[in-house]
Automatic annotation (TrEMBL):
Keywords: Carbohydrate metabolism, Kinase, Transferase, Xylose metabolism
Name this protein carries in UniProt: FGGY family carbohydrate kinase
Domain Carbohydrate kinase FGGY N-terminal: 1-242
Family as reported in the entry's similarity comment: Belongs to the FGGY kinase family.
Signal peptide interval: none
InterPro entries linked: ATPase_NBD, Carb_kinase_FGGY, FGGY_C, FGGY_Carb_Kinase, FGGY_N
Species per Swiss-Prot/TrEMBL record: Amycolatopsis samaneae
Length: 482
């Protein structure tokens, strides 16, 4: 009875799985995301913590046996500043935030981003902890003075539940951790001008660490004090584990708010002179890494086009089915985030566009062009990450059968979709079970999946579309401005 809790950006989910990896009880509730002027995006730690309490209590009340452990995962990046008791010293700054756009552009011009990338393999973007922290160090230094720890969502929740100040090695990878030594690279911290704030970085916990619910956490969740709690990896690597990614070269596509593309590797090798984008994420297994290319906009783009066209998400599949591959010549670039793009390139000025429109263009063509452009972005990311093996997929986007088939066609390979949507929570539970010494049968868990095949006749259309996407991207990058 391990309860997996996935604290997403806009949704918190709690799930319990049976021995075959099938969810038997689940609950979810929405988190509040505050979009403010100037590209600022923030969340309230207490509200997020309340969502955790809500879903855990709901699940626990439905279980036939007592909860035996809690396994946490959730969103990464951003900056969650807390004091010694775990109270927020200011609202959490989301990974979606764009207040540091200009700072990031300056770091790119000054070579700071390239210096950090050479040392850690992680590219920086406006919503990463380094950029946000440096911005606040200039604009709100008193806030950093009051803080005891500068961390992330999962460790912020862990602190309030257990009293422990720590961070999972996966979160700590962003962007200052040397993935080989699993220690902070002091020169990377210095390059960002944050050496004087070094004490705010919690030391990464040993892999598969187990913590205990304290009295305050027990009261909040309605569970017994002393209950085992694990925290991490965060949602990207947790999803890879939960989906069944195990062999080097295998990858996972997460079509969620973020379009996250990851490939498993046993070598922390990268081209130090390459595009300073993406990240190397440490996994719970020593010597294993995920080369991650998390593009900024996935299903968030679909939500935007639904609002724009006055349609429902349920209308997406019929619209995609009514427009052939190629969207009648309509093309799109999917860069809708206010903070630009972070993978497989970083540009805070990146913006979306549609081309090839005419008076005959309808909703179906606009929707298909956007969905195809997101799939092209995924291919761009996977080419940079080195995908060579099986491909898995998860996230709200793969609930659309038509969109999933577009991804398969653009990527030119079948896609394995786990039968249970709670893939992040699955990964957290599998990690917790290993840490507690009672691992599940991972092969049995992986059997609960379906495979989406591509249509061979569409490959040529998508090859031309991808070439057009690359040409359009190259032309647009010369026009973007802050």
């Amino acid at each position: 009875m391990i309860v997996g809790v996935d604290i997403g950006t806009s949704l918190t989910k709690a799930v319990v799985f049976d021995e075959a990896g099938v969810s038997i009880v689940s609950a979810c509730t929405r988190s509040e995301v505050h979009h403010l002027p100037g590209g600022r995006v923030e969340q309230d730690l207490d509200q997020v913590l309340g969502t955790v309490a809500t879903v855990v209590r709901e699940v626990a009340a439905q279980l036939p046996e007592p909860v035996t452990a809690l396994a946490l995962t959730g969103q990464g990046d951003g900056l969650w500043l807390r004091d010694e008791s775990g109270a927020a010293v200011r609202p959490a700054v989301s990974w979606l935030d764009g207040r540091a756009n200009a700072l990031l552009a300056k770091w790119q011009a000054d070579g700071v981003t390239r210096e950090v990338f050479r040392r850690t393999g992680s590219g920086m973007f406006p919503g990463c902890a380094a950029a946000i922290m440096s911005f606040l160090d200039t604009q709100e230094p008193e806030v950093l003075d009051r803080a005891v720890v500068a961390g992330y969502c999962v460790d912020a929740v862990l602190q309030r539940l257990t009293g422990e100040i720590t961070v999972d090695v996966s979160d700590a990878s962003l962007p200052f951790l040397d993935p080989v030594t699993r220690k902070y690279d002091e020169s990377a911290i210095a390059a960002c001008g944050l050496t004087h704030r070094r004490a705010l970085f919690a030391e990464p916990a040993p892999a598969k660490s187990v913590f205990r619910l304290d009295d305050r956490g027990a009261e909040l969740l309605g569970l017994p004090a002393g209950l085992p709690v694990t925290a991490g990896p965060f949602d990207l690597p947790a999803s890879a584990i939960g989906a069944g990614v195990r062999e080097p070269g295998d990858g996972i596509l997460t079509a969620g708010t973020t379009l996250a593309c990851q490939v498993l590797t046993r070598e922390a090798r990268f081209d130090p002179d390459g595009e300073p984008a993406g990240m190397f994420l440490c996994t719970p297994e020593p010597g294993e890494y995920l080369r991650a290319m998390p593009a900024m906009v996935g299903t968030a783009g679909i939500d935007w086009v639904c609002r724009l066209l006055g349609i429902d998400v349920a209308d997406i599949d019929p619209l995609l089915a009514s427009s052939p591959p190629g969207a009648g010549g309509v093309r799109a670039l999917p860069f809708l985030s206010v903070s630009g793009e972070r993978a497989p390139f970083v540009d805070a000025t990146a913006r979306a566009q549609f081309s090839g429109l005419s008076l005959e263009t309808g909703r179906a063509e606009l929707v298909r062009a956007l969905c195809e452009s997101v799939a092209y972005a995924a291919r761009h990311c996977f080419e940079a990450a080195g995908l060579s093996g099986r491909l898995y997929a998860c996230g709200g986007g793969v609930r659309s059968a038509e969109w999933t088939r577009i991804f398969a066609g653009v990527l030119g390979r079948p896609i394995v979709v786990p039968g249970d949507p709670g893939v992040g929570a699955r990964g957290a539970v599998l990690t917790a079970a290993e840490a507690l010494g009672r691992p599940y049968d991972r092969d049995r868990w992986a059997d609960n999946a379906r495979t989406v095949e591509f249509r061979p006749g569409e490959i040529e259309v998508y090859e031309r579309g991808y070439a057009d996407y690359q040409a359009g991207l190259a032309a647009a990058r010369g026009l973007w401005r802050l």
